[in-house]
Amino acid sequence: MPIVAPSLLASNFLKLQEECTMLNESEAEWFHLDVMDGVFVPNISFGLPVIEQIRTTTKKVCDVHLMIIQPDRYTEAFKKAGADILTVHIEACTHLHRTVQHIKSLGMQAGVSLNPHTPVDSLKDILDDIDVVLLMSVNPGFGGQSFILHTLHKIKELRRMIDERALNTKIEIDGGVTLENAASIVQAGADVLVAGSTVFKSKDPKATISQLKHIA
């Protein structure tokens, strides 16, 4: 069964406490928290103060996805804010290995994210050092976009790379995940489903999370 990581970017920020309570009562294992700076991606979301508050509401995994330039400047701050997993973009890191090692030295799991145009082969020299690979299945910056079908090929290729090395690295898929395509994403080899609009715009978010968790 996949790990379900609802993206709070799609939640109702005026009811954030209620949304967190709903996730705590659901089968979701991770809270996915998207941080955008308006520079690396063409949108601005939320940052450290919001994550600090969300952290106080849950004992579940806080999965923080940094869509920002110079993420190295903030790794310690996000650890302090409560991140369990800190994911940076390969496209934003000049010294990726150093960034990954710093994240892990702080006691967090390290994730690396790839934009749709970035080949999974670019991870071959860092794959052994990371805990999560987050494949963007939409162009990052905005919720509600459609899943890019080529991502299925990338998942399969990455699954082969991980299995050949007998690694425990998780494959996380972010963007356009729906009840209709989740099964094909999991069958391709994904371990973690990030779902924003699919969860928070549904009439029964907890039921939707359960459906994603038990997807065939």
Written overview of the protein:
The protein has helices at 16-25, 48-57, 75-81, 96-105, 151-164, 182-188, 197-200, 205-213; strands at 3-6, 30-36, 61-67, 85-89, 109-114, 132-136, 170-174, 192-195. With 216 residues, the protein is of the alpha/beta class. The chain has a single domain (3-213), classed as TIM Barrel, CATH 3.20.20.70. An eight-stranded parallel β-sheet has the order 1-8-7-6-5-4-3-2. The model has no long low-confidence stretch (mean pLDDT 96).
Structure described in brief:
The protein is α/β, with parallel strands linked by helices and 216 residues long. 33% of the residues lie in helices and 20% in strands. It has an 8-stranded parallel β-sheet with strand order 1-8-7-6-5-4-3-2.
The CATH topology is what?
TIM Barrel
Give the name of the CATH superfamily: Aldolase class I
The biggest sheet, with number of strands, parallel, antiparallel or mixed sense and barrel status, is: 8 strands, parallel
Order of helices and strands: EHEHEHEHEEHEHEHH
Spatial order of the strands forming the largest sheet: 1-8-7-6-5-4-3-2
CATH architecture: Alpha-Beta Barrel
The N- to C-terminal Cα distance equals 9 Å
CATH class: Alpha Beta
> How many beta-strand runs?
8
Number of helices: 8
Output mean pLDDT: 96
Taken as a percent bin, the fraction of beta residues is: 15-25%
> Helical proportion?
25-40%
Question: What Rg do the Cα atoms give?
Answer: 16 Å
Q: What does the overall shape look like?
A: globular
**How many separate domains?**
1
Structural class comes to alpha/beta
Unreliable stretches covering 5 or more consecutive residues = none
